[in-house]
From TrEMBL:
Keyword Transmembrane assigned: no
Entry keyword set: Oxidoreductase
GO biological process, one term: pyrimidine nucleobase catabolic process
Lineage: Bacteria, Bacillati, Actinomycetota, Actinomycetes, Kitasatosporales
The protein's name in its UniProt record: Flavin-dependent reductase
Gene3D superfamilies per the UniProt record, alphabetical: Electron Transport, Fmn-binding Protein, Chain A
Domain of life: Bacteria
Pfam families: Flavin_Reduct
InterPro entries: Flavin_Rdtase-like_dom (IPR002563), NADH-dep_flavin_reductase (IPR050268), Split_barrel_FMN-bd (IPR012349)
Any GO molecular function: FMN binding
Keyword Zinc: no
Stored SUPFAM superfamilies: FMN-binding split barrel (SSF50475)
């Protein structure tokens, strides 16, 4: 392996390399929710991607070891919530293992198709799960938008260098 001028020394592929590179990639922050057998489930996701406008499709990744995976693996519908910069604590709650994600101070209601819908987000969607594609230790969930609301106020929350942050002017 040879060094590329100005780019440092390349590293062989590894989980650490992938994590290190993606810490440099700023990503929007979303919370994915679903209705589970024992109540609502949800997790923080930075892997949300718009896939198609016609039909309106999106995708997100979820680890098969995640506490939300059993419910998401069976759910017909999921909620997708775009968080605002004022929701760092909410993002951290949904990212934290073992947290009471739907307890106070999380404000939410049961939405269309029984999907938990979070209050005060920049935008939310309810989506019908189309398929779940195996991808290493994750699944890529492909979902079709059924309905939603893009009218929340504020600026987006971002994830960069291992922490939640906001846009700078």
């Amino acid at each position: 392996m040879t060094a590329t001028p100005g780019l440092g020394t390349p590293q062989l592929a590894s989980p650490d390399l992938l994590r290190s590179v993606f810490r440099r990639h700023a990503a929007g922050v979303a919370v994915i929710t679903a209705s589970g057998e024992t109540g609502p489930v949800g997790f923080t996701a930075t892997s949300l991607t718009s896939v198609s406008a016609e039909p309106p499709l999106l995708s997100f990744g979820i680890g098969t070891g995640a506490s939300s995976w059993p419910a998401v693996s069976r759910a017909d519908h999921v909620g997708v919530h775009i968080l605002g910069e004022h929701q760092q604590e909410l993002a951290a709650t949904f990212a934290r293992s073992g947290a009471d994600r739907f307890g106070a101070p999380t404000a939410w209601r049961e939405g269309p198709q029984g999907v938990p819908v979070l209050d005060d987000v920049l935008a939310w969607l309810v989506c019908r799960v189309v398929t779940r594609v195996p991808a290493g230790d994750h699944r890529i969930v492909l979902a079709e938008v059924v309905l939603g609301d893009p009218a929340g106020a504020g600026r987006p929350l971002l994830y960069h260098q291992g922490r939640f942050t906001a846009l700078r002017d």
